[in-house]
Amino acid sequence: MAYKITDACISCGACAENCPVAAISQGDTQYVIDADTCIGCGACASVCPVGAPVEE
User: Fold this and answer.
1) Domain residue ranges in the chain
2) Cα(first)–Cα(last) distance of the chain, in Å?
3) CB atoms < 10 A from the CB of 50, how many?
4) Distance between alpha carbon 34 and the CA centroid of its chain, in Å?
5) Could you give the CA distance from residue 42 to residue 45 in angstroms, rounded to a whole number?
6) Considering only CA atoms, which of 36, 33, 37 is closest in space to residue 54?
7) What's this model's pTM, rounded to 2 decimal places?
8) What is the distance of C-alpha 1 from the center of its chain?
9) What topology does CATH give the domain 3-55?
10) 17, 27, 28, 35: least CB-packed within 10 angstroms?
11) What pLDDT, on a 0 to 100 scale, did the predictor assign at position 43?
């Protein structure tokens, strides 16, 4: 199941740095996950200091 990033995102970039398939990029106001690329591994969620990535 793909992940999405909630409004809790503080744009620190930890999630993007740890995504093994480069599915995360900087959006207009926060980081975003490309659901078609996301493999649902949870690496982003495990490193996020504010718990912004959640399963869709």
Assistant:
1) 3-55
2) 7
3) 11
4) 9
5) 5
6) 33
7) 0.93
8) 13
9) Alpha-Beta Plaits (3.30.70)
10) 28
11) 98
Q: Which amino acid belongs to residue 4?
A: K
Q: According to the model, what pLDDT value does residue 19 have?
A: 98
Q: Give me 29's structure tokens.
A: 């106001």
CA separation for the pair 35, 1 (Å, rounded): 9
Dihedral (CA of 35, 9, 18, 45) sign:
negative
Residue in the block written with tokens 């999405």: 4
Residue in the structure block whose two tokens are 């990029």: 25
Q: What is the pLDDT of residues 1-56, one digit of tens each?
A: 899 999 999 999 999 999 999 999 999 999 999 999 999 999 999 999 999 999 99
What is the C-alpha to C-alpha distance for residues 33 and 13, in angstroms, rounded to an integer?
A: 12
Residue 46: CB atoms within 10 A of its CB come to 11
Place of tokens 């599915």: 23
Measure the CA–CA gap between 35 and 6, rounded to whole angstroms.
14
